[in-house]
Structures are given as C-alpha cells and as structure tokens.
Design brief:
Tetracycline Repressor, domain 2, mainly alpha, 2 domains, elongated, Arc Repressor Mutant, subunit A, single chain
C-alpha cells in the first residue's frame, strides 16, 4: 500500500514544535506525546512523519545545520577588489548580526543540551557549518598575511578565537544575570558593544602598523541585515 504524500505544512509544524521541546527538555527529557500536543497532531501522525524520537531529533539537528547553509556570511557580497582588512571587517559585521539576531534561543539551548547529553550531533554541525565558515575566514587572514596587511603565526586559531568568543558570549548571558559584572558585560546595546570590541581586538592582534578599521559601504551593511532577516524567516517558517 502506498503511503500518503507528505503534507509539508504539517511536517514543518511538527519540526518546529520538536525544536521547542528539545530545547526545553533535551533529548532524554523530551517526550513524543509532548511534541504531538505542541504541534497539534496525534502521536500516530508524528510517527508517520518521523518514525522514532531519534530520527525526529536528527531532523531537528539537520534543520539547524540548514540554517547555516549560506554560511555566516555570503562570500558573494564581499568584493574581490577589497583588501583583506575590508573583507575581515565585513565578515565580522555579518557574523555578529547573525548570532545576535538570526539564531534564536532554541538553537543555543539544543547545542548546550547536545553537549551535556553526549549526543555528538555537534560533529555534524562542525562539519557542515562551523568548519567551512572558519575556513573562509582563515582564507581572508592568510590573504592579508600574504599582502602584508596582517601577521599571525596561526590564522586558524586567530579566527576561531573570535567566533568562539561570540558563541560563548551569547550562550552564557543567563549565567551572569544578577551578578555585579553583568551590566558591564551585557550593556543596553550589547550587539554594537561586541561589534566594536571584536573589530578593535582583531585589528590590534592581526594588523601591521596599527592600521585603521576600514569603513564598509552602507549598502553592504543593509545587505547583511536583510540576509539575517532571511535566515531568521527560514528558521521560523521552514
């Protein structure tokens, strides 16, 4: 007997509901009954679309990976004629916008749960999302070294350090709430504060002759903002 065709709207509703429950409870604590109630379908329908909880969790992780298929920044917007300094500045702008505005709390919670429960799904994210993005950034730094703009004994660690900084900064915000240092770490406009900190930190650590942080055209900044909104819309409505 042929299976009924998949209803994409129902599948999406289940997927987004599962993302919410997995973010709240982790894999071990999530129950298929709870996911069915959250998505407004019966449990039989849930199993029809996804089979087991393991497979549903795998699909949620793939959803997280697919959010990043465009990468942290679109290389097409970074002009070939730009200097490495301009390219790195543009990349930092987009990475900060992406992590502050596009990736929701569920994304970060699922990553935290995955580490805590030893699911090792982050190896998939590292292979398909994190590592390719780091490699693109490393290529920019290497180009800057070859052009005499930058100096670094280990370009891969240079870019890894600031990407990990952003991830840790966002993931640990809850930890520092109600502490004496919170207001200094997370000000009223933390996105701009972190943007400026990272730009200054990266250029002080990499640049030769203390070169100034280059200006990025306003239309490129607007592109980044639009790109982030597109990713966020994909996250909410995929």
């Amino acid at each position: 007997m042929l299976k009924k065709p998949i209803n994409q709207e129902t599948k999406t509703k289940i997927l987004l509901s599962a993302k919410k429950i997995f973010a709240q409870k982790g894999f071990a604590g999530a129950r298929m009954d709870a996911i069915a109630r959250e998505s407004g379908v019966n449990k039989a329908m849930l199993h029809y679309y996804f089979g087991s909880k393991d497979h549903l969790y795998h699909e949620v992780i793939l959803h997280l990976v697919n959010l990043g298929q465009k990468g942290d920044f679109d290389m097409n917007i970074i002009h070939d004629g730009w200097t490495a300094s301009q390219k790195l500045t543009a990349a930092i702008y987009c990475i900060v916008y992406m992590h502050f505005d596009a990736l929701d709390d569920d994304f970060h919670r699922i990553i935290a749960w995955d580490f805590a429960e030893g699911k090792n799904s982050m190896k998939m994210l590292a292979k398909n999302y994190f590592a390719p993005g780091l490699a693109r950034l490393e290529k920019i730094v290497v180009e800057g070294i070859q052009n005499g703009e930058f100096e670094s004994k280990n370009p891969a660690l240079s870019v890894w350090s600031f990407v990990i900084f952003i991830i840790a900064y966002i993931n640990q915000q809850e930890i520092y709430k109600n502490t004496e240092i919170y207001s200094r770490l997370y000000g009223s406009n933390s996105k701009e504060m972190i943007m400026n900190f990272l730009l200054n930190h990266m250029f002080k650590s990499l640049s030769i002759n203390k070169q100034k942080i280059p200006e990025i055209p306003s239309e490129v900044i607007q592109y980044f903002k639009t790109h982030v909104l597109d990713v966020k819309s994909n996250q909410e409505n995929k």
